[in-house]
Design brief:
Length: about 260
């Protein structure tokens, strides 16, 4: 995997460096590590948008295992200084939040993977915000951060492999009935959190989770798109982003692209 000097994953496309940049933030769904560089959906979206006259550079900031709290940190402490006023961030609500819903420590998890700061620490507060309400609070904070610093945020739900367990050999093999039912409830709550915050704040919103609910064939496992799924999703997402990006603003000059 190639990345530029700011850590954004290279798309492999020949796009002018003076095109305004659009940042994609999310977990491994956005990162698409095990997919060829030019096949990843962020790369496909970039090609499609430019072919339609929407001249942009798509910067892939996906990172495996990242949570909404970690993305809020990234948004405030890394993206704001790069984007500046007028920049655009496509914020995918990470499915990595789902395991956190059951944790007593919630998003302040005692592990290097989920902890918002390193070294991690165990929260001492008697009551911690958990589950869907905690996610909604963090998403409101992400919207507020973007607006306070003059960036445009587009909120997107991350899709996942959905099918009745008994009709999908992969899900039947990987998840017990109890685990499947619990997982589906938590994934539904995660999607509902994004829908609620979008309705409350009026932020630009794309519900990819709802649109891809019945497309298990697009995924090679529970959470990640296969090559065909990447192409289908890129075309679908580009169609939703095209009208939103007609007036996209430039990134700050500090962003450096190229391998």
């Amino acid at each position: 995997m190639r990345s530029d000097r700011n850590g954004f994953i290279v798309t492999g496309n020949d796009v002018p460096v003076d095109h305004p940049g659009v940042l994609f933030l999310g977990d491994s769904f956005v990162e698409s590590m095990f997919i060829p560089e030019s096949v990843r959906f962020v790369s496909g979206v970039e090609r499609i948008l430019n072919s339609r006259g929407v001249g942009v550079r798509c910067l892939n900031g996906g990172y495996s295992g990242t949570s909404t709290l970690q993305l809020v940190n990234v948004l405030l402490n890394k993206v704001v200084p790069l984007v500046g006023c007028g920049g655009t961030v496509v914020f995918f609500v990470p499915q990595s939040d789902v395991p956190i819903f059951r944790s007593e420590a919630s998003y302040w998890h005692l592990s290097d993977r989920y902890s918002p700061v390193i070294p991690p620490f165990e929260p001492e507060a008697a009551v911690m915000p958990k589950g869907q309400p905690a996610t909604e609070s963090l998403l409101r904070l992400a919207v507020t951060v973007a607006r306070e610093f003059g960036a445009r945020l587009i909120l997107v739900t991350s899709p996942y492999r959905y099918a009745p367990r008994d009709e999908d050999p992969y899900l039947a093999r990987m998840l017990t009935v109890e685990a499947y039912n619990s997982m589906m409830r938590r994934r539904a709550a995660l999607g509902a959190a994004a829908v609620n915050v979008a309705a409350e704040t009026g932020v630009d919103f794309i519900d990819a989770m709802a649109a891809f609910m019945d497309h298990p064939e697009a995924f090679y496992d529970e959470l990640h798109l296969n090559d065909e799924g990447q192409a289908v999703f890129a075309e679908w997402l580009a169609g939703r982003l095209t009208p939103m990006l007609q007036d996209v603003g430039p990134l700050a000059s500090t962003v450096v692209t190229g391998a």
